[in-house]
């Protein structure tokens, strides 16, 4: 989770200082969708996210040890993983650009090789991490899309981080996700609350 630097959800607008939103042109149709845009269909309700169930897909909730709160949901499907985190954002600008810069700095300080590339949804980070006792490199792709007062971040691992055909399936999982931000005021970059599913 990135640090929040703004103290309120809505700030006076300086047109020249606004950060442009990063999202595909068809986001409102092809996703990731806002709850106001989502069709009526079965979903797994996780509070801030709704997930489309799929045969063979496993879902894991990532819990922060100290606070016991759910901080992400990871979808595992056909040898790939997609970790999802929804963040609050201002109405008038995007946050994926500054968040991307923070993430890149964090990864590079950890010794990862990081490059920014243009992906199917816009700018993304591609990194190779050294993890595990054997020091074997692990490839990840970090994607993000700005929506209406939210940003959905995804961390792609497994086969999809290395193979474009597998990546297309992971992007489909990401884009089928619905973000439920709610109307309550939230500071930009604050994690939208997630909860255990009511039914799976």
From TrEMBL:
Residue stretches of biased makeup (Basic and acidic residues): 18-28
Pfam families linked to this entry: DUF3710
Acidic residues bias spans: 1-17
Source domain of life: Bacteria
Chain segments carrying region Disordered: 1-34
The protein's name in its UniProt record: DUF3710 domain-containing protein
Originating species: Agrococcus pavilionensis RW1
